[in-house]
Design goal:
single chain, Ubiquitin-like (UB roll), 6 domains, four-stranded mixed beta sheet, 13 helices
């Protein structure tokens, strides 16, 4: 980084070259001159054009007797020079008079930038001090050049050169031009770790924010060298080790070196890991009278036998201090103490509760929020002006403000108040854009190609509201959704959400019918603890089925029956004579009579399953349901978890009005654990049950439909109860009970750069879906409903070419398979956290399956926003 300055115009160049005052010489001159009584009023000023005479005289401060001695004249000279208004200041004596001769700095006519392509003029103008119509100052210009270079360095351009040029104009004016040679981006070519024995370098690269430059770096900025980010990475590494039991860890240094050959920086972190500790004991003590410290044990996240976790200790201190405040001890301070046993590698933790200083909050100042309303910020505080000062609550408020994602920077500082027991909180903010417009695209083997256009605002109207509108259009799915969230309902920390949606799912290779759903759902979200949340909801929606005419044309035939049989032309010809209860059908120029009255012609061109056609005939149904979801989340990272537990339990009760009644319960649990060599283990358990309410029949649409979401290697809607009539569409009709278990190992590709984001997976799945309880017979006009359905099929019902004996009537109603077979599979997967969005490829081979299950060994899904 180089700086220089070029001056155009001879007069200005001469002034700058020869106008450096020599204060010491002047002092010597005055020291040798005879003392003369001078006053401020007697000072004469020469050479000033813009600066008033009285302004110049004001910099000379007289003594107690109103006189100016040599020392005070020298102080006034220095003060005039420090103003930056003058290029030169001289003090002369002329026949006993004190004459101040000044040469004023030029006025800046305009400020321009040349050569800047990556950063706009407006951004640079806002950062420098030199302004049009301001006073030109050489030190200020040099400072501005350094500031411009610093801005480029923050964006990763360390080869930048900034040269200020001065162009002289008439009337003591100048044009200031900053000529910028931006240079190229300076990336991080390598990141190394020294001293890390327990965790691999590959694992630690996942902890820090700085990344190595690779072929995908143009999509992000994490590979651009930023010294502040590298320093922050040191703290991230230290906190990572402290979270996993390394109480003695030290990140000794973060060494950076520029390599001219590689044209980038080499970053090396030096680590001293120390030993890994476990918790030997947890105790509580206090110096506060009448306070039982053991009452705080329920608010501890630290447990005997577990790895020492500094983050859990911090959370415990915060929760305990807040609880003590709730119990009336507003000034209680909780301090943790850890006594280490270096031989046993254990830590004994003591939480000490003491009386802190009696300090009150005098005022909370909020600065930097030009758009966000004050109350949106203040409601994140659990304390207000006049309350006892509680550092834990202040830290919690700062964390909440950061989590809002409304601000680039949040910093809460304190300063003394009007008295020793008062403190002022200063909340310093820097706002950022909170609106998003995105175009998303994706493809999966289930839903085909899919695109979404959405617009959202996280801080709508500056009131902290969330609003989103999205339109989806795809090969098999289309829809429109509107969402609105008020995070503080009636000033309580309860989130109110409103969702309205329209969804259309078209028939595809895995489902013979389409559905249209229009609905509205208000919901309430409550954060019970940091790791536990609850959502209450009400849903009302209308849903209907659509079918191509050729899959629902049984009612067009005279028989109107349900026989699962496709008669041969020879059989039609042989049975042409009619009977009293039969109907006549013309097929291919031949006329035949259904002598059985069972509607042999329903499946002559393929027919949807009975439950599907029943839904179609009954038209749109309205579902009105209330429900709740409990979410327990201790994951270390929601996007790329390696450790922790995630449990979702939800129940929905339909029957609060509407046409449908049921009770649906589901649970989904995922446990991640780091194993060895950066391999992460995942155990995934899930289950659900659908119960009838009273004697009301369950709809087919309300049953669970499962496929690769339960056991990979199977097609969507590929497992569970199915209509087995070979002449129809053989639709999956769903089940009321399911369970699933999966074990997966996720491992990185160590030979690839970490930043590529590729991981491999091997897994084994098992599960089952069974117990269909939907309609099996149907009382449509002219159709038979007396005979029972055939669960598991009947060999008399599906002859290859000839009709069976119909006297028993065993071929009417739904014929389906519902065997409780354990489906299982093993497979491999490729997981890519790509810049284009998360992508996953799976190839699985079923080991056990039902007789009529459908297999799909390859599955792909993913998408992105841009």
């Amino acid at each position: 980084m180089k700086f220089g300055m070029r001056v155009r115009g001879g007069l200005l160049a001469a002034l700058i070259m020869f106008a450096v005052p020599v204060a010491t010489a002047l002092v010597a001159t005055f020291a040798s001159a005879p003392a003369a009584a001078q006053t401020v009023a007697s000072i004469e000023v020469e050479g000033n054009r813009r600066v008033e005479v009285e302004t110049i005289r004001s910099y000379f401060k007289p003594g107690p007797n109103g006189q100016l001695d040599a020392g005070r004249i020298d102080d006034g000279l220095k003060a005039l020079i420090e103003t930056g208004l003058f290029q030169d200041v001289k003090i002369n004596r002329d026949h006993g008079r004190l004459v101040v001769v000044v040469v004023e700095n030029p006025v800046i006519n305009r400020v321009a930038f040349e050569g800047n392509k990556k950063i706009k003029d407006e951004q640079l103008s806002a950062e420098i001090q030199s302004k049009p119509r301001g006073t030109f100052s050489r030190p200020m210009v040099q400072s501005d050049a350094q500031r411009i270079a610093e801005i480029y360095r923050r964006s990763g351009r360390y080869d930048v050169h900034v040269t200020p040029e001065i162009i002289e104009q008439p009337n003591n004016r100048v044009d200031l031009v900053f000529t910028i040679d931006e240079g190229g981006k300076t990336g991080v070519r390598s990141i190394d770790f020294v001293g890390n024995n327990f965790y691999s370098s590959y694992r630690l690269k996942d902890v820090i924010k700085t990344h190595e430059t690779n072929w995908l770096s143009f999509l992000g900025s994490g590979d651009i060298y930023d010294p502040d980010r590298v320093e922050a990475d040191r703290d991230l590494i230290r906190r990572f080790y402290l979270k996993h039991g390394f109480a003695d860890v030290q990140v000794v240094a973060a060494l950076t070196e520029y390599d001219p050959e590689k044209k980038g920086f080499l970053v090396t972190f030096k680590i001293e890991e120390g030993q890994q500790y476990r918790v030997a004991s947890v105790k509580y003590e206090t110096t506060i009278a009448n306070f039982d410290p053991n009452a705080l044990s329920n608010f501890s996240y630290v447990y005997v036998g577990s790895l020492y976790n500094a983050e859990a200790v911090e959370k415990s201190v915060e929760q305990m201090q807040i609880e003590a405040s709730r119990r009336g001890y507003a000034f209680a301070v909780v301090r943790p103490r850890g006594d280490r046993n270096f031989d046993a590698h254990t830590v004994s933790i003591v939480f000490s509760v003491d009386e802190g200083p009696r300090t009150y909050i005098e005022r909370i100042n909020i600065r930097g929020n030009s758009r966000t309303r004050d109350y949106v910020i203040r409601r994140e505080f659990d304390i207000s002006e006049g309350d006892a000062y509680n550092r834990a609550l202040v830290d919690r408020a700062e964390r909440r403000l950061k989590n809002l994602d409304y601000f680039k920077e949040v910093k809460i500082t304190t300063e003394p108040g009007s008295s020793s027991d008062r403190v002022v909180l200063n909340v310093n903010l820097e706002e950022k854009s909170t609106g998003d417009f995105s175009v998303s695209g994706g493809y999966s083997t289930t839903d085909g190609a899919l695109a979404e256009v959405s617009i959202s605002e996280r801080n709508f109207l500056g009131r902290g509201l969330f609003a989103k509108a999205a339109v989806t259009y795809g090969q098999y799915a289309r829809g429109l959704s509107l969402s609105f969230v008020e995070p503080y309902l009636l000033d309580y920390r309860i989130a109110l959400g409103l969702d309205a949606y329209y969804r259309e799912q078209m028939a595809n290779n895995y489902i013979a019918y389409g559905t249209k759903t229009v609905g509205f759902s208000p919901r309430l979200g409550l954060q019970l603890r940091e790791d536990l949340s609850m959502q209450l909801r009400y849903s009302i929606y209308q849903q209907e089925i659509s079918l191509p005419s050729y899959l629902a044309n049984c009612n067009n035939n005279p028989g109107n029956g349900l026989l699962a049989f496709n008669p041969s032309p020879a059989w039609v010809t042989a049975n042409r004579p009619g009977t009293a209860n039969g109907g006549t059908v013309t097929d291919g120029g031949q006329t035949a009579t259904d002598t059985s009255g069972l509607g042999l012609w329903c499946y002559s061109d393929g027919e949807a399953s009975l439950p599907v056609r029943k839904e179609l005939s009954e038209g749109a149904a309205i579902t009105s349901a209330i429900g709740y979801t409990l979410n327990y989340n201790t994951l270390d990272n929601n996007k790329n978890p390696t450790d922790g537990l995630l449990i979702d339990f939800k129940q929905d009760f339909a029957g609060v009005g509407g046409d449908v009644t049921y009770l649906k319960s589901q649970i989904d649990a995922k446990y991640y654990a780091p194993l060895v060599s950066d391999i992460v283990g995942l155990i995934h358990l899930q289950g659900g049950i659908l119960n009838k309410i009273g004697n009301d029949e369950l709809r087919m649409l309300d049953h669970f439909q499962m496929g690769p979401n339960l056991v990979r290697g199977f097609a969507p809607n590929g497992i569970g109860p199915r209509d087995i009539n070979p002449f129809g569409t053989q639709d999956a009709i769903g089940g009321t009970k399911y369970w699933g278990a999966s074990f997966e190992l996720q491992m990185p590709f160590w030979f690839l750069p970490k930043e590529v984001g590729l991981k491999g997976a091997v897994y084994a799945d098992a599960g089952g879906l069974y117990d269909y309880q939907g309609p099996t017979t149907w009382a449509a006009t002219g159709e038979l409903t007396t005979p029972a359905s055939q669960k598991g099929g009947n060999s008399n019902c599906i002859p290859p070419t000839q009709p069976p004996a119909f006297s028993s009537g065993t071929c009417t109603g739904l014929v389906y398979n519902d065997s409780n077979v354990i489906r299982s599979s093993v497979g491999i997967g490729l997981i890519w956290a790509s810049p284009f969005g998360p992508l996953r490829f799976d190839y699985a081979v079923p080991l056990t399956k039902g007789q009529f299950d459908r297999v799909q060994q390859f599955k792909f899904g993913g998408g992105t926003s841009f």
